[in-house]
Amino acid sequence: MKKEKVAEFYRRFAAKNPVPKGELEGGTVYTLLVAVVLSAQATDVSVNKATPALFKAAETPEKMVTLGEARLKDYIKTIGLFNTKAKNIIALSRLLLEKHGGRVPRDREALEALPGVGRKTANVVLNIAFGEPTIAVDTHIFRVGNRTGLAPGKTPFEVEQKLLKVTPDDRKLHAHHWLILHGRYICKARAPRCPDCLVRDLCAYKAKTPAVD
């Protein structure tokens, strides 16, 4: 996609939704981190149903460690892969206490050293909690990047690097949210809502779905 098209692509998203927000509910940096870890291979809706009760019981690393893995499972058992996630959350909480004074670090390397935290999770936390211009490529953003021609790539990392290269600096802070919301609600995997798309005339996708009378 040419530079002029990319600029227009983001201009339209910004005009419609100037300050997009993530849909995961997490009131502090720590609870956001936990919510993002829980959201891996799960929906934000399922996580948001489980976390209010969990965070009422354990909203800090200290309280989470005290809660323990077995009791944590009871709170998150409706979320996919809850056994592994419970183990990782207790382990990362201990590491935060041991190495970071109980605070979530504003550092990619330190974040990715935490159990259950990969590049995508680190990018989300850096962006939402610390205002870093990172772009976390999930399945939605991977699809949008490839389908539209905005940032085609064979791997999430490749799409991320291309997005960082083509996205104007003044759009990078919100690019993650614009793209994920677009992929989640408009540019869907099986039945993209092309007639409702803000950027359909800029998009390289040839098999656009037609308008329904």
How would you sum up this structure, described in words?
This protein is mostly helical and 213 residues long. The chain folds into two domains: 3-20 and 135-196, Helix-hairpin-Helix base-excision DNA repair enzymes (C-terminal) (Endonuclease Iii, domain 2); 29-130, Orthogonal Bundle (Endonuclease III, domain 1), CATH 1.10.340. The protein is 59% helix and 0% strand. The protein has helices at residues 3-16, 29-39, 44-57, 61-67, 69-76, 82-100, 108-112, 119-130, 139-148, 156-166, 172-185. α9 crosses α10. The model has no long low-confidence stretch (mean pLDDT 93).
Fourth-tier CATH superfamily name of the largest domain: Hypothetical protein, domain 2
Main β-sheet, in a few words? none
CATH class of the largest domain: Mainly Alpha
Radius of gyration: 18 Å
Keywords:
213 residues, mainly alpha, Endonuclease Iii, domain 2, Endonuclease III, domain 1
What's a concise summary of this model?
By secondary structure, the chain is mainly α. The protein folds into two domains: 80 residues, Helix-hairpin-Helix base-excision DNA repair enzymes (C-terminal) (Endonuclease Iii, domain 2, Orthogonal Bundle); 102 residues, Hypothetical protein, domain 2 (Endonuclease III, domain 1, Orthogonal Bundle).
